TrEMBL record:
UniProt protein name: Iron-sulfur cluster carrier protein
InterPro entries registered for this protein in UniProt: FSCA_dom_sf (IPR034904), MIP18-like (IPR002744), Mrp/NBP35_ATP-bd (IPR019591), NUBPL-like (IPR044304), P-loop_NTPase (IPR027417), YlxH/NBP35 (IPR033756)
Keywords: ATP-binding, Hydrolase, Iron, Iron-sulfur, Metal-binding, Nucleotide-binding
Molecular function per GO: 4 iron, 4 sulfur cluster binding; ATP binding; ATP hydrolysis activity; ATP-dependent FeS chaperone activity; metal ion binding
Highest taxon of the lineage: Bacteria
Amino acid sequence: MNDIHTIEANIFERLSHVIDPELGRSVTDLGMITSIEAVPSGTVNENGDGIIDVTVHVELTVKDCPLSETITNQINGAVRSYVAPGSPNVTLVPHIEVSSMPQDKLTSLVQTLKAERRQNPFSKPGIKTRIFAIASGKGGVGKSSVTANLAATFAALGYDTAAIDADIYGFSLPRLFGVHTQPTNLNGMLMPVTAWGVKLISIGMFAGADRAILWRGPRLQRSLEQFLSDVWWGEPDVLLLDLAPGTGDMAISVAQALPNAELVVVTTPQPSASDIAVRSGLVALQVPMKVRGVVENMSYYEHKGEKLRIFGEGGGQRVSEQLTAALGHDVPLMAQLPLMPELRETGEEGRPAVLTPEGALASTPLADEFTSLAQQLMELH
């Protein structure tokens, strides 16, 4: 039978590939594995190989961690699937002992993580994250629904996706994603809530958020800074921001905090919406933010094979042409999304309409439109 110490060392190496789903680091790097004890059980098979009980002591970062089962299942799998060199018939039986990290150790870990990040992680040179700020000139055009479904599409396509509900006054992403829990507070560092594959943060996740919010200026900007700097995002491939309608404080704050963000303007077809939508795109004349494109929502309603233009037509194209002329670069009309009752119905149920109940991309024209939009956005310009 293999040397017990070698088995313990090999198991520890295997656990270095088990990743904490919130922090995005291996459980060994985070100091969560405090000891591994391999003990032969005394049962020997006909080949001289036996059964070994492997006890793994795990310290979770927070008591009653909501993802503890995910972590322990991965550890169980890593132990059970281990094949001892030279002893293919040895059987390892895992026993996971879970406790909470001592306060001094947790404090040290959080300080280390904060020291690595130090500031808004999305403004660092060389950051790989593509940042898309979803804006509209007025409310009621389905901007948040577009943000939610686009984020869900990115995640379903395999991108590590995050979304910030930057509409402080009219937050709606928690409802659209079916989120009813608060972010985990890890000694002052927040873990975003993950739903439908998307890491989310919103003022609507916190106690008292149902009360009217009357923030202005500096305090509003500070809320965005906290969402960027006090939340452990890792390094996602895509970050979406659902901006408040109009051209107010938050849009300017986003441009200042995230100069590499790309603006996507959402409008509906009628002139009353498209004329105002142009103004949100023109924010780019005042701040360093590129306008990437236009999305026309509620473009048509399909009834018995006929596309009914309930809200008129041409608004998205008008916004595209006016912004292209004003900004001096191509601002294309990237998508024309249909008016669909199921978009509202599934959203109210807490599932983005582009997804099946199992979380995969649906085989629908709507999902195809969002997939095309996501692919266009990820093209380098």
